[in-house]
Design brief:
By secondary structure, this protein is an all-alpha fold. It has one domain. The protein contains 12 helices and no strands. It starts with 11 loop residues before the first helix and ends with a helix.
Length: about 300
Protein backbone atom coordinates (compact mmCIF):
# COMPACT_ATOMS: atom_id res chain seq x y z
CA UNK A 1 0.00 0.00 0.00
CA UNK A 2 1.35 3.41 -0.95
CA UNK A 3 0.41 6.78 0.36
CA UNK A 4 0.36 9.89 -1.81
CA UNK A 5 2.31 12.84 -0.57
CA UNK A 6 0.09 15.57 0.88
CA UNK A 7 -0.20 18.57 -1.39
CA UNK A 8 1.36 21.72 0.07
CA UNK A 9 -1.24 24.20 1.19
CA UNK A 10 -0.74 27.95 0.77
CA UNK A 11 0.36 29.68 3.91
CA UNK A 12 -2.71 31.39 5.44
CA UNK A 13 -0.72 34.48 6.37
CA UNK A 14 0.65 34.89 2.83
CA UNK A 15 -2.73 34.33 1.17
CA UNK A 16 -4.40 36.77 3.53
CA UNK A 17 -1.63 39.29 2.91
CA UNK A 18 -2.13 39.10 -0.85
CA UNK A 19 -5.90 39.59 -0.56
CA UNK A 20 -5.43 42.58 1.72
CA UNK A 21 -2.83 44.10 -0.62
CA UNK A 22 -5.10 43.83 -3.68
CA UNK A 23 -8.03 45.35 -1.77
CA UNK A 24 -5.92 48.24 -0.46
CA UNK A 25 -4.53 49.21 -3.85
CA UNK A 26 -7.88 49.04 -5.63
CA UNK A 27 -9.36 51.39 -3.04
CA UNK A 28 -6.40 53.76 -3.29
CA UNK A 29 -6.64 53.71 -7.07
CA UNK A 30 -10.21 55.01 -7.05
CA UNK A 31 -9.72 57.37 -4.08
CA UNK A 32 -9.08 60.44 -6.31
CA UNK A 33 -12.74 60.31 -7.41
CA UNK A 34 -13.71 60.98 -3.80
CA UNK A 35 -11.23 63.81 -3.25
CA UNK A 36 -12.28 65.49 -6.50
CA UNK A 37 -15.70 65.93 -4.86
CA UNK A 38 -13.97 68.27 -2.40
CA UNK A 39 -11.95 70.22 -4.97
CA UNK A 40 -13.24 73.58 -3.63
CA UNK A 41 -11.96 72.85 -0.11
CA UNK A 42 -8.33 73.45 0.86
CA UNK A 43 -5.96 70.51 1.24
CA UNK A 44 -5.26 71.36 4.88
CA UNK A 45 -8.96 71.38 5.73
CA UNK A 46 -9.52 68.05 3.98
CA UNK A 47 -6.55 66.59 5.87
CA UNK A 48 -8.11 67.80 9.10
CA UNK A 49 -11.33 65.95 8.29
CA UNK A 50 -9.38 62.82 7.35
CA UNK A 51 -7.75 62.80 10.77
CA UNK A 52 -10.90 63.60 12.78
CA UNK A 53 -13.21 61.11 11.10
CA UNK A 54 -10.54 58.43 10.77
CA UNK A 55 -10.08 58.62 14.54
CA UNK A 56 -13.83 58.16 15.02
CA UNK A 57 -14.10 55.20 12.64
CA UNK A 58 -11.04 53.48 14.06
CA UNK A 59 -12.18 53.96 17.64
CA UNK A 60 -15.48 52.32 16.73
CA UNK A 61 -13.64 49.43 15.03
CA UNK A 62 -11.42 48.86 18.05
CA UNK A 63 -14.43 48.81 20.36
CA UNK A 64 -16.38 46.42 18.12
CA UNK A 65 -13.40 44.10 17.74
CA UNK A 66 -12.93 44.05 21.53
CA UNK A 67 -9.34 45.30 21.33
CA UNK A 68 -9.67 47.97 23.98
CA UNK A 69 -7.30 46.10 26.27
CA UNK A 70 -4.70 46.04 23.48
CA UNK A 71 -5.07 49.80 23.09
CA UNK A 72 -4.65 50.38 26.82
CA UNK A 73 -1.61 48.12 26.91
CA UNK A 74 0.09 49.95 24.02
CA UNK A 75 -0.63 53.33 25.57
CA UNK A 76 1.47 52.24 28.55
CA UNK A 77 4.54 51.70 26.31
CA UNK A 78 6.24 55.08 25.70
CA UNK A 79 8.73 53.69 23.19
CA UNK A 80 5.96 52.25 21.02
CA UNK A 81 3.98 55.50 21.23
CA UNK A 82 7.08 57.44 20.17
CA UNK A 83 7.53 55.18 17.13
CA UNK A 84 3.86 55.53 16.23
CA UNK A 85 4.18 59.31 16.56
CA UNK A 86 6.96 59.21 13.97
CA UNK A 87 4.95 57.04 11.59
CA UNK A 88 1.94 59.34 12.14
CA UNK A 89 3.98 62.36 11.00
CA UNK A 90 5.11 60.54 7.87
CA UNK A 91 1.55 59.42 7.17
CA UNK A 92 0.16 62.94 7.60
CA UNK A 93 2.72 64.31 5.13
CA UNK A 94 1.75 61.62 2.61
CA UNK A 95 -1.96 62.35 3.05
CA UNK A 96 -1.48 66.09 2.57
CA UNK A 97 0.68 65.65 -0.53
CA UNK A 98 -1.81 63.28 -2.11
CA UNK A 99 -4.80 65.56 -1.47
CA UNK A 100 -2.93 68.55 -2.89
CA UNK A 101 -1.83 66.61 -5.97
CA UNK A 102 -5.32 65.29 -6.77
CA UNK A 103 -7.14 68.60 -6.28
CA UNK A 104 -4.53 70.67 -8.14
CA UNK A 105 -4.58 68.56 -11.32
CA UNK A 106 -1.40 66.66 -10.51
CA UNK A 107 -2.98 63.21 -10.45
CA UNK A 108 -0.46 62.04 -13.04
CA UNK A 109 2.34 63.05 -10.63
CA UNK A 110 0.60 61.09 -7.88
CA UNK A 111 0.29 58.13 -10.22
CA UNK A 112 4.00 58.27 -11.08
CA UNK A 113 4.86 58.48 -7.37
CA UNK A 114 2.99 55.31 -6.58
CA UNK A 115 4.48 53.58 -9.62
CA UNK A 116 7.91 54.40 -8.21
CA UNK A 117 6.95 53.38 -4.67
CA UNK A 118 7.27 49.58 -5.13
CA UNK A 119 10.89 50.07 -6.12
CA UNK A 120 11.44 52.25 -3.05
CA UNK A 121 10.01 49.34 -1.05
CA UNK A 122 12.52 47.00 -2.68
CA UNK A 123 15.41 49.33 -1.80
CA UNK A 124 14.26 49.67 1.82
CA UNK A 125 13.84 45.90 2.04
CA UNK A 126 17.47 45.50 1.04
CA UNK A 127 18.70 48.19 3.44
CA UNK A 128 16.73 47.27 6.55
CA UNK A 129 15.68 43.62 6.18
CA UNK A 130 18.66 42.21 4.26
CA UNK A 131 16.39 41.16 1.41
CA UNK A 132 18.59 40.17 -1.54
CA UNK A 133 17.94 41.48 -5.04
CA UNK A 134 18.17 39.13 -7.98
CA UNK A 135 19.75 40.31 -11.23
CA UNK A 136 16.43 41.23 -12.89
CA UNK A 137 15.38 43.17 -9.80
CA UNK A 138 18.60 45.17 -9.95
CA UNK A 139 17.96 45.97 -13.61
CA UNK A 140 14.39 47.02 -12.74
CA UNK A 141 15.61 49.46 -10.10
CA UNK A 142 18.19 50.84 -12.55
CA UNK A 143 15.49 51.37 -15.22
CA UNK A 144 13.32 53.27 -12.75
CA UNK A 145 16.23 55.46 -11.67
CA UNK A 146 17.07 56.19 -15.31
CA UNK A 147 13.47 57.18 -15.99
CA UNK A 148 13.51 59.71 -13.14
CA UNK A 149 16.89 61.12 -14.25
CA UNK A 150 15.60 61.37 -17.82
CA UNK A 151 12.90 63.76 -16.66
CA UNK A 152 15.50 65.78 -14.75
CA UNK A 153 17.63 66.32 -17.86
CA UNK A 154 14.80 66.82 -20.37
CA UNK A 155 12.31 68.85 -18.33
CA UNK A 156 14.93 70.45 -16.09
CA UNK A 157 13.45 69.36 -12.78
CA UNK A 158 12.85 66.24 -10.78
CA UNK A 159 9.27 65.00 -10.27
CA UNK A 160 9.31 66.30 -6.68
CA UNK A 161 5.68 65.50 -5.88
CA UNK A 162 6.08 61.97 -7.25
CA UNK A 163 9.29 61.30 -5.34
CA UNK A 164 7.89 62.78 -2.12
CA UNK A 165 4.79 60.59 -2.30
CA UNK A 166 6.83 57.49 -3.12
CA UNK A 167 9.41 58.00 -0.38
CA UNK A 168 6.96 59.04 2.35
CA UNK A 169 4.73 56.03 1.83
CA UNK A 170 7.66 53.64 1.55
CA UNK A 171 9.05 54.96 4.83
CA UNK A 172 5.62 54.61 6.45
CA UNK A 173 5.43 50.99 5.34
CA UNK A 174 8.92 50.37 6.70
CA UNK A 175 8.14 51.93 10.08
CA UNK A 176 4.93 49.95 10.48
CA UNK A 177 6.58 46.68 9.42
CA UNK A 178 9.26 47.10 12.09
CA UNK A 179 6.62 47.52 14.82
CA UNK A 180 4.84 44.54 16.33
CA UNK A 181 1.59 46.45 16.70
CA UNK A 182 -1.98 45.38 15.92
CA UNK A 183 -3.15 46.94 12.63
CA UNK A 184 -6.39 48.45 13.96
CA UNK A 185 -4.93 49.68 17.21
CA UNK A 186 -1.77 51.04 15.63
CA UNK A 187 -3.74 53.11 13.13
CA UNK A 188 -6.01 54.36 15.89
CA UNK A 189 -3.08 55.53 18.00
CA UNK A 190 -1.54 57.25 14.98
CA UNK A 191 -4.83 59.04 14.32
CA UNK A 192 -5.29 59.99 17.97
CA UNK A 193 -1.76 61.42 18.05
CA UNK A 194 -2.65 63.64 15.09
CA UNK A 195 -6.11 64.50 16.43
CA UNK A 196 -5.22 67.36 18.86
CA UNK A 197 -3.32 69.18 16.10
CA UNK A 198 -6.23 68.67 13.70
CA UNK A 199 -8.75 70.04 16.22
CA UNK A 200 -6.56 73.07 17.02
CA UNK A 201 -6.24 73.74 13.30
CA UNK A 202 -10.02 73.42 12.86
CA UNK A 203 -10.89 75.75 15.74
CA UNK A 204 -8.24 78.45 15.35
CA UNK A 205 -6.87 78.40 11.81
CA UNK A 206 -9.48 77.22 9.31
CA UNK A 207 -11.10 80.27 7.76
CA UNK A 208 -13.53 79.03 5.15
CA UNK A 209 -17.26 78.86 4.52
CA UNK A 210 -17.21 75.07 4.98
CA UNK A 211 -15.50 75.04 8.39
CA UNK A 212 -18.81 75.23 10.27
CA UNK A 213 -20.64 71.95 9.69
CA UNK A 214 -23.93 73.45 10.90
CA UNK A 215 -23.96 75.81 7.91
CA UNK A 216 -23.09 73.09 5.36
CA UNK A 217 -25.56 71.04 3.36
CA UNK A 218 -26.20 67.51 4.57
CA UNK A 219 -24.64 66.13 1.39
CA UNK A 220 -21.39 68.02 1.96
CA UNK A 221 -21.20 66.97 5.62
CA UNK A 222 -21.74 63.31 4.68
CA UNK A 223 -18.98 63.63 2.08
CA UNK A 224 -16.61 65.14 4.65
CA UNK A 225 -17.37 62.45 7.23
CA UNK A 226 -16.78 59.77 4.60
CA UNK A 227 -13.13 60.91 4.58
CA UNK A 228 -12.74 58.66 7.61
CA UNK A 229 -13.93 55.56 5.77
CA UNK A 230 -12.05 56.39 2.56
CA UNK A 231 -8.90 56.79 4.64
CA UNK A 232 -9.14 53.89 7.07
CA UNK A 233 -10.43 51.08 4.85
CA UNK A 234 -7.40 50.84 2.51
CA UNK A 235 -4.93 51.60 5.30
CA UNK A 236 -6.26 48.76 7.41
CA UNK A 237 -5.86 46.41 4.45
CA UNK A 238 -2.37 47.74 3.76
CA UNK A 239 -1.07 47.37 7.31
CA UNK A 240 -2.52 43.85 7.46
CA UNK A 241 -0.72 43.04 4.20
CA UNK A 242 2.56 44.62 5.35
CA UNK A 243 2.61 42.34 8.39
CA UNK A 244 2.24 39.20 6.28
CA UNK A 245 4.34 39.92 3.18
CA UNK A 246 7.95 40.90 2.55
CA UNK A 247 8.44 44.46 1.34
CA UNK A 248 9.50 43.07 -2.05
CA UNK A 249 6.32 41.00 -2.32
CA UNK A 250 4.21 43.95 -1.24
CA UNK A 251 5.73 45.96 -4.06
CA UNK A 252 4.48 43.37 -6.53
CA UNK A 253 0.85 44.43 -5.94
CA UNK A 254 1.32 48.15 -5.73
CA UNK A 255 1.15 48.94 -9.43
CA UNK A 256 -2.64 48.33 -9.27
CA UNK A 257 -3.41 51.65 -7.56
CA UNK A 258 -1.29 53.94 -9.76
CA UNK A 259 -2.53 52.19 -12.91
CA UNK A 260 -6.08 53.14 -11.98
CA UNK A 261 -4.94 56.69 -11.14
CA UNK A 262 -3.13 56.99 -14.48
CA UNK A 263 -6.22 55.91 -16.40
CA UNK A 264 -8.41 58.32 -14.43
CA UNK A 265 -5.99 61.22 -14.95
CA UNK A 266 -5.53 60.54 -18.66
CA UNK A 267 -8.98 59.54 -19.87
CA UNK A 268 -11.42 60.90 -17.28
CA UNK A 269 -9.82 64.08 -15.92
CA UNK A 270 -7.77 64.64 -19.12
CA UNK A 271 -4.62 65.99 -17.52
CA UNK A 272 -1.94 67.05 -19.98
CA UNK A 273 1.39 65.22 -20.17
CA UNK A 274 4.67 66.18 -21.86
CA UNK A 275 6.54 63.66 -23.97
CA UNK A 276 9.44 63.67 -21.48
CA UNK A 277 7.06 62.83 -18.66
CA UNK A 278 5.55 60.02 -20.71
CA UNK A 279 9.07 58.68 -21.32
CA UNK A 280 9.56 58.52 -17.55
CA UNK A 281 6.37 56.50 -17.26
CA UNK A 282 7.63 54.11 -19.95
CA UNK A 283 10.84 53.41 -18.04
CA UNK A 284 8.92 52.94 -14.77
CA UNK A 285 6.45 50.60 -16.46
CA UNK A 286 9.34 48.63 -18.00
CA UNK A 287 10.94 48.35 -14.58
CA UNK A 288 7.72 47.10 -13.02
CA UNK A 289 7.13 44.63 -15.87
CA UNK A 290 10.61 43.19 -15.43
CA UNK A 291 10.23 43.08 -11.66
CA UNK A 292 6.83 41.35 -11.93
CA UNK A 293 8.14 38.84 -14.49
CA UNK A 294 11.07 38.02 -12.22
CA UNK A 295 8.74 37.56 -9.25
CA UNK A 296 6.50 35.26 -11.30
CA UNK A 297 9.40 33.10 -12.54
CA UNK A 298 10.83 32.86 -9.03
CA UNK A 299 7.44 31.82 -7.66
CA UNK A 300 7.06 29.12 -10.32
CA UNK A 301 10.55 27.78 -9.60
CA UNK A 302 9.86 27.74 -5.88
CA UNK A 303 6.60 25.90 -6.47
CA UNK A 304 8.42 23.36 -8.63
CA UNK A 305 10.95 22.75 -5.89
CA UNK A 306 8.19 22.23 -3.34
CA UNK A 307 6.26 19.80 -5.56
Amino acid sequence: MSFSQPQPQPQPSTSSGAINAVAAYFMWGFAPIYFKLLVDIGAGEILMHRIVWSSAFLLLLVLLSKKWSVLVSLCKQPKVIAKLALSAIVLAVNWLLFIWAVNNDHLLDASLGYFINPLFNVALGVLFFSERLRRNQKVAVALAAFGVLLQLFTVGSLPIVSLALASSFAIYGLLRKKMQVDSFVGLLIESLLMLPIAIIYWVFFVDSSTANLILNSNALNVTLVMAGLVTTAPLLCFTAAAKRLTLSSLGFFQYIGPSIMFLLATFYYQESMQMAEFSTFIFIWSALALYSFDAYITMKRHKGLIN
